[in-house]
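pasting for ref
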Amino acid sequence: MRMLAAMVTAVALVAAAGCGSSKPSYCSDRSTLESSVKNLTNLSSSSGISGLKSQLATIQSDAKTLVASAKSDFPTQTSAITSSVDTLASAVRALPSSPSVSQVAAIAADAGSVVSAVRGFSSATSSKCG
């Protein structure tokens, strides 16, 4: 009987340890995406289009992970992230090897939309991830 009581107590302690103190998985996914987006601004002119495409691939992967983990809780914000990243990806794919100033400006505007979408998600999740 004591053995059964000890096992029940141990199970209860393990279950209680897993509740309440941990943050949702999308919190770490959010941090990863924020870092990837921030690294977009660290690209130098020597990185060229290939550096931009490489960083975009990282952003796309991180955004996909975040959306998968948070879509059910934050459908509006994750939809905005998906849409803005898809728009940026399309614009980057369309860039010629020597883009004009206006083409680069359009990329910057699309990147700004990604930043806004990620900020919106961060604001929406601040109480859960703070």
